[in-house]
Design goal:
Blueprint lengths: L2 H10 L20 E4 L15 H5 L2 H7 L3 E4 L27 H13 L3 E6 L9 H8 L11 E2 L26 E4 L4 E4 L14 H16 L4 E4 L15 E2 L6 E2 L10 H13 L7 E5 L5 H8 L8 E3 L20 H14 L7 E2 L9 H4 L7 H13 L4 E5 L20 H12 L5 H11 L36 H6 L4 H14 L1 H5 L1 E5 L6 E8 L2 E8 L5 E4 L3 H6 L1 E4 L11 E4 L4 E7 L13
Parallel strand pairs: 1-2, 1-13, 2-3, 3-7, 7-10, 10-11, 12-13
Antiparallel strand pairs: 4-6, 5-6, 8-9, 14-15, 15-16, 16-20, 17-19, 18-20
The chain binds 1-O-alpha-D-glucopyranosyl-D-fructose.
Length: 602
Amino acid sequence: MAPETEARWRSRATDSTVLNEDFTNQWWRSAVVYQIYPRSFADSNADGVGDLGGIAARLDYLAVLGVDVLWLSPVYPSPQADYGYDISDYRAIDPLFGSLDEFDRLLHSAHERSIRVIMDIVVNHTSDEHPWFLESQSEKASPRRDWYWWRPPRYGMEPGAPGAEPTNWASIFSGSAWEFDHGSGEYYLHLFSRKQPDLNWENPAVRHAVYMMMRWWLDRGVDGFRMDVINLISKDPGLPDGHHLPHQPYADGSEYYVCGPRIHSFLQEMRHHVFAGRQGKCLIVGEMPGVTVDEARLFTDPASAEVDMVFQFEHVQLDQGVSKWDYVGFDLRDLKASLGRWQAGLAEVGWNSLYWSNHDQPRIVSRYGNDKEYRVASAKMLATVLHLHRGTPYIFQGEELGMTNALFETVNEFRDIESLNQYAAITGSGVATPGEALAALRLMSRDNARTPMQWNAGPWAGFSTSPPWIQVNPNYSEINAAAAMADPDSVFHHYRKLIELRHTEPVVVHGSFHMLLPHDEQVYAFIRRLGDVELLVLGNFSSAHAGVDLADAAEWARAELLLGTPPELESSGRRLVLRPWEGRVYRRGIPGRGAVEYLDPI
Ligand code: TEU
């Protein structure tokens, strides 16, 4: 990396000398990451599927937005059974997306714009078409047999018969987590689809093959990795049966593979072998379903030398009951309790990632916001509340436009393996009618996030000149990047301002976090404090005006309004008033720190 570019990046790191703590090695604390799902971002060769050429053509858009890092969902060769999260060659680019040369050019163009690029690496499992698995499956004596989890049928059971699986574990994509291989008469483990066999990280040869591959991409200039389900790589080698779930054909085995017995030693070994000598240059974020606050402290404590931050799932499962398909409604107090706990838990050690959306979650404005009358207001408010927490924000493509969930009429319009497997499983077993199954998919399917990026009001929303692989959301004529960039009051420009704030205000990056009004059902309110600067951040999660009862409301009402629109209703001494779905940010200097003392940091 050219020294001047490094210098320009370091200058971006908000002046941390204020705190005399060396954050320069943790540049990502003041960075904002933009996630691209290449299949749905921009198509440059008219095949209806997004590609690297499409991303390259939109780098200036991303530079105007002001993001610091691009996270590319997988672009490696893949049979696309799980749209790239099933990799058949780790050291190439799928022709669907382009070529290695095109990738190198994209990387260079991004770096020229001071935008880093991290790759999505999927090493809990490979594709069943990866040469490693094909060789492993070829014969029991294969030198790669132990690269995967092969086991004989359950003792005394007819091979291939229901119940003969080595354990009773459910796959995360429905059905058993074991696939019977007629050729060898054994089963192989796949926590996701049968086309995604799990790698056996107990085998050091597997681990070192992965480390060499990751170094290969770093040597090529990439700036780090988002590591897919990385807390699932260590399984309890005894492979015990899991506990049965009501009305489910298979059991929950997660206690034997989520944050398994050797997870910390594997991640420390990975960090050492892959990132030694690259101190402070890369970002490593681990996706960790089921991770707890205490575990995240260990994973992200710099002293552990494992990962820089994790994606936890608590705040995106609050509206889910026994499964993601069992919608139970949303209560703002649950959200504040969850995010508040993560803010407190990682206040002294480690670091939080901050996200509402990604390629696995429905659109947040449709989920926790209001995608009808108050779409713009709620999209802005949700962004304000999230981006001003302490941690690194992630924006999923289209979130900066306030894109909404799609309108899927029939099951044939869905493309996602998780959704289609779920539909087949619950309608096939009679647990749900097709109508009930479809209703659940409409709410929670990952396809809600994967409809094409809406660039303009032209054909196919400007995503492609050909029919896309998945339908465009019909509201693209209103919601699109061209219209948003032309409207200074748009959700896009609001995100731009939030990113600017993170780049210019040390309190946004380094300030302590203090939750307010935890029991208020309408308002999300908190304080950020650094030195003698305080921010008050407010968000109204309702379609009604909301009062904010604070002892020093009158003082805040006179403070500087950093973001949001001046209040229409006069604030009384003890109460500020927010419009429906409004977000607002005040800043004040703490005079002689005599200011009102709030709740201790929770
Ligand atoms: O997701 C892991 C994961 O936890 C999700 O499958 C999640 O449970 C579910 O989708 C929530 O609805 C990662 C990738 O992000 C996902 O796209 C892949 O399908 C999965 O791993 C397997 O690689």
